[in-house]
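Lecture notes, unit on protein representations.

Consider one protein chain, 86 amino acids long.
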Amino acid sequence: MSVAIAVRVRFFARLRELTGVDVEEVKSTPGATVASVYAAMRADHPALPRQDGVSAALNHEFVDWNVTISEGDEVAFIPPVSGGEI
């Protein structure tokens, strides 16, 4: 029997505006990846863009989408950043 794990999901910038929340506590299955967490968030928040337009971080470090999450992790989704002067 598999037990759900709890993770904290954070949305930044435009993604926060699209979801209407800064942080969500979610349950996922053991062995879930950052990509599967984002897919679940898109199911709950259909306004979120496709994964290829977003960066992901796990516990404050940018990661690949196929990284496995663990109990108590913090997953963050960050939209592309632009602007500024050179």
